[in-house]
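Quick one: structure for this chain?
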Amino acid sequence: MTLTELMNTSNDFTDENISIAMALSFVNAGIDVINMECGIKLPVFKDATTDYLALDRSWISGILGNYLSYAIKMNDSSRDEALVYKDEFLNALTLFKNSPTGLATVSDEYKEDYSGGIYKMDTSNAIDQGWFGPGADRGTF
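Got it. Here's what it folds into:
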């Protein structure tokens, strides 16, 4: 799916006509939200005519289409209408995170590697055991 296709659909839903530059900005902001929420690193749209291949078409439409419509309505100061699209976006994002056809199908090249920042720490002596713990000096005042 291209940004132009996504933009045309959102323009039809919202009864607005936004520019490609605005659509690009809004959709890439939506991708940033997906990346933060899901711990992945999907690429952003670079232009309006290249097919976006990092997600299946249905997820692009369901998640990013709703985010784009939300952003269009917020930009238009139609807060009540925008909140409807925001709810749809959040529902689609939750479904994406929990569905076997969603996040689980994202290519490994877009998944974050957190293994380098995990360390095991010995916390066996981290709790103050007071006067009666092992090694406490019990007889001196």
